[in-house]
Design brief:
Elements lengths: L1 H24 L5 H24 L7 H15 L11 H8 L3 E5 L5 E5 L1 H23 L4 H21 L15 E4 L8 E3 L6 H11 L1
Antiparallel strand pairs: 1-2, 3-4
Helix pairs in contact: 2-7, 3-5, 3-6
Length: about 210
C-alpha cells in the first residue's frame, strides 16, 4: 500500500517536471501560467474537500476566504502609506521592518507593507474571519449551511466590487513579487510574482505547495 502511494507521488512529480520541460522545449511556457493557477485553485478545492468530503458539510463560501487573503495582501502591498508616515501604527510598522519604500511606475515615492508581512496578515485575517463566521454558521445543517456560506461569499464579492481600496471592478494591479528564499551563495533567490520571466519558478512553487 505504501509502495503504491510512493509510486503515485513519484509519478506526479515526474509529470510536473515533464510538463515544464516540454513547454520549454516547445517554447510554450505561457501555458505554465494557466497550470500555476490550476495548482492554486486545486489547493482551494482540497480545503473544500475536507469540509464536504470528510465532514459531510455543504459549504459554498470558500471562495470568499480565498478572496480575503488575495485581495487583502495585494491591497496592503500596493496602497501608498507615504501620507500616513506620522501615524503611530505606521511608524511602528516601519520600526519593525514591515514596510518597504520605493517608487511607483510614475516615479512617485511609495511606502507599502512588505509582501511577507502582508501575506502573514492576510492569512491571519482570513483565519479570524473564518472563526468568527464559522462558530455560529456551523451550527446549521444541510441546505441552511449551504445558503449561509453562499451568502458570505456573495457579500465578500460585493465588498470587493464596491470598495475603492480593493480596486472595485478593475481589481488591483502592480502587485510586487514575494521572495520565498533569498540568495544563499550561488543559490536563489526564489520568488513568486507576475513577472513573465519567473513563470518556471512560479510553476514549481505552486505545485510544490500542492
Amino acid at each position: 500500500m505504501r509502495d503504491s502511494k510512493l509510486f503515485k507521488i513519484a509519478l506526479l512529480i515526474g509529470l510536473v517536471i515533464g510538463v515544464q520541460v516540454l513547454t520549454t522545449l516547445t517554447d510554450t511556457r505561457f501555458y505554465l501560467t494557466q497550470l500555476t493557477m490550476s495548482a492554486y485553485y486545486a489547493l482551494l478545492v482540497i480545503g473544500l474537500a475536507v469540509v464536504m468530503g470528510y465532514a459531510g458539510q455543504i459549504s459554498l463560501g470558500h471562495a470568499g476566504f480565498f478572496a480575503i487573503g488575495g485581495y487583502l495582501s495585494a491591497a496592503l502591498t500596493t496602497h501608498n502609506l507615504v501620507g500616513l508616515q506620522e501615524n503611530p501604527v505606521i511608524h511602528g510598522l516601519g520600526n519593525l521592518g514591515m514596510l518597504v519604500s520605493g517608487q511607483d511606475i510614475y516615479g512617485e515615492q511609495l511606502l507599502v507593507v512588505a509582501p511577507w508581512a502582508a501575506c502573514i496578515f492576510a492569512v491571519l485575517m482570513a483565519a479570524i474571519i473564518a472563526l468568527v463566521i464559522g462558530i455560529p454558521v456551523l451550527k446549521l445543517k444541510g441546505h441552511y449551511l449551504a445558503m449561509a456560506t453562499l451568502g458570505f461569499g456573495i457579500i465578500i464579492y460585493r465588498i470587493g466590487l464596491a470598495t475603492e481600496y480593493f480596486g472595485e471592478a478593475d481589481g488591483i494591479s502592480e502587485v510586487p513579487g514575494f521572495t520565498l528564499i533569498p540568495t544563499i551563495g550561488s543559490f536563489g533567490p526564489i520568488s513568486v510574482s507576475g513577472d513573465f520571466g519567473l513563470r518556471v519558478e512560479n510553476y514549481y512553487v505552486a505545485w510544490g505547495l500542492l
